[in-house]
Each structure stands twice: as structure tokens, then as C-alpha cells.
């Protein structure tokens, strides 16, 4: 396949690409070859940090030769090239550095449950995407691989921790790529890069075989996409649980891809543009974006009320800080096992080292109290949402932030998150409560940078249905960044 043909496919979403394969218009190998050409054409973004081209081509060839792509066995994503975030999406035998110099030679020994389900759905993984060290930062500029460039502007971060995936999708390299979200790590890059970013509800997918959950339930795995239907189709592919999982979400009565065609009915939507954390201000362009979405939703028949649930911001920030310090100690132990020695301080990012050192001093009581605080604030949030179905808020309180802001050490882990929350605002509340949340590229700044608007609800179906309504009413598909692959 030549470059021009490869570039023509850049604007076809994942469901559309799979339909081309099913119709016999292209093969899985041809789709993959086109995606590889687009990777090579966008190397300057530094989004893909590990090439798995031979492995991907072998898988695509097997799909083509098996004949299953002509049937219905693999569903609406079969044959589509896909990129895996280099954290939380382990592929057996593939490098897995997790953005850390201490793990720069680490290779995964087993595949994650979610990756196995991607493969079962017929997706073709062919590379790993850049991520900050251990997902600690809402920006993607690790010292191991260097910063990923936002296709919209070289001066704005693509967000994190799924920034490499977001940049690749935003530039048209692939229609979708995997991500993970612990305090906003899918939705933040979705906002920065003008994408759809859904954080599923807690328990929607499994962390098997290596874990039961991440960050005591804060982390959820999913993907970055350009269309709502791709997000729904990918969620269908990974919905479920593995034997022995500590908890799981109820299975949907209707597949998500089918449900987005259904009218959600009038929803009771609570909205605010103010931050839940004191001292943070919301940029006027972000306020305007949220207000415009509220008016659109009202015009679609939904009931809009101004207000928000309240939480204890100090309790939330303290708990998030403690959970991260303990998580970083666990990862320090992984690095120690891998290296056969204790890692040196200069093998970590400076902010990671602060978390690790604090984690060594975190007591069992502090950890237990952090978990209790998360549960208490979840109940307080849910009580505040009584009488409403959906919360409409900014994704970020600001336009896409600059580099060297969200990854810097602040002396303590709590101060680190104070800076993060002054930018991200509401994102972490979806992780704390376990609610589903979606960022949609529904607004722009005065100078054309993307602005995400966020919807939260207890379940994904209503969010995807609302997102589909907004995709029709306020379409974003034609907006392309300066760094688009064929630009």
C-alpha cells in the first residue's frame, strides 16, 4: 500500500475500518501496513515508543488466512490495527518499561486480561505508546523516552498518563489506542488532544491475571478514540470479569454499540463549572464550552440544573496522595526484583522518588484511613447526586497545559496533587467514586486548542447515549490538528 492510500484510511474510524475488511475491500495486513506507514510519517510526535510490527503482521496474516474476517465471529473490530499503552496493557514477550528508567529492559511475561480480549475481538496490536513513569503524571514527558508532542500544538502537553495513545489517535495514526485512568489519565489526554475518552465504571473490566484492582479501585482501563461508536465497540470487547475478581460491574442488558442508537430519555443533569477543590479557577473558554453543552442538552429535552455534589477536598487529596505513595512502593519492589538490586535514585523521575520515599514511611493505619476516606467521600458524592442522573462539568479547568507543569516534584506527594487538581478539577472524583465518566471534544479555546467537556454517571450506557446525541448535535469529526498525519 502506498502512502496516499494509507493517509486516506487515517480518517476512517475503527468500526469503519473493520467494515472494509469484512466487505473484502481491504485485508487486515493492508490495514496494518497503512498504519505502519502512518507511524513512520509521525515519528516526530514520539507517540509510539516500541514497534511490534512483525508481531502485528503475523497476527494480521493469521486473521486474513483463517477466513474469520468474512464472518461474524469476531465482531465489529476485527482486523483493525491497534496500539497498546506501555502501562496496564501487558503483552507477553513484549517490552514493558512503564515509562521508568528502572524498568527499561523489562519484558512482560504474561498478557493482561484486557489485551487477551482485544486479541479475541480481532484487533491487531502492533506497537506500544509513550507514558509517564508508572502513570504518576497527567502529562507525558518521561525522561526515559522523552516527551510526546501534542498534534495540536508543540507547546501544549498531550496530557497523561495515556498521552502517547492520545497523540497517535489525534494525529490519525490509528483510530483507537488503549489507555488507563487513575485520576484522569484517559480523560485528561482526551481533552488535550480533542478526543473521546471514556473511563468505565469500577469493575467493568478485569485486572487479571496480575491484580484484582489498581490503586484500591481508582484505576480503570479503556481507550482513546475519535468517535463514540468506537468507544462503545471497544467497551463491548472488554466488558466482563475473570474468575476470582474481587468485584465486577453488572453486565449490560444491551451491547454498548447497539445502545448508542437508543434515546436515553430525559436525563436530570446537574452542572457546574466551579472546581471541587478550593483556590482553583476555571478558564473562561472552558466555562463557555460547558455552558454551550448545557444549552444543547436542554434543547435535546434534558433537564439542566446548576449545582454540584460536595466533597471534603482535603480528605480526597490526602487519600489520593497516600494511595499513590503505597502504589509507588509496590512498583519500586517490582523494579528491585527485575534489576536484582535496589534501584538508584537517579533511575527514577524526581517526583516519583518523592512518592517512593514517602511510601516507605506510610503506616498501615494511614493506608487504611485513606481507603476509608475514599469510601466516605463516595457516599457523600452519591448523596449529593440524589435526584440527578448525570453530572456535567469541565474535563480540565484550563486549556491544554504546558509541559514541565504536571510532572514536577513539589516537596511532598500531597503538594504534587494540589497542583494537579488545580488543573484537572473534577476528573479524580470519578475515580474516587467509581462512576463512569466521559470527556468529549465539544469546545475549543480562542486560539483553536481543544477543550474537553465531561459527563459523569453511575453507568456507561447513559453516558454513551448522551455522547452520541452530542456527536450529532455538536459534531467534532472534521476538526483536525496541525499535526494530522496528512496535514
Describe the protein:
There is one protein chain. This protein has one domain (3-473): Amidase signature (AS) domain (Amidase signature (AS) enzymes). The longest helix has 27 residues, at 313-339. The chain is built from 16 helices and eleven strands. Helix 10 links the parallel strand 7 (268-271) and strand 8 (303-306). Helices cover 39% and strands 13% of the residues. An eight-stranded mixed β-sheet has the order 4-6-5-10-11-9-7-8, sandwiched between helices. It is of the alpha/beta class.
Quick synopsis:
The protein is of the alpha/beta class. It has 16 helices and 11 strands.
Secondary structure elements and pairings:
Layout: H1 3-8, H2 14-22, H3 28-41, E1 48-51, H4 53-66, E2 81-85, H5 113-120, E3 124-129, H6 163-170, E4 176-181, H7 187-193, E5 196-199, E6 220-225, H8 228-238, H9 256-259, E7 268-271, H10 284-299, E8 303-306, H11 313-339, H12 350-361, H13 364-384, E9 390-394, H14 413-424, H15 427-433, E10 436-444, E11 450-457, H16 460-473
Parallel strand pairs: 2-3, 7-8, 7-9
Antiparallel strand pairs: 1-3, 4-6, 5-6, 5-10, 9-11, 10-11
Observed structural traits:
487 residues, alpha/beta, Amidase signature (AS) enzymes, 8-stranded mixed β-sheet, 11 strands
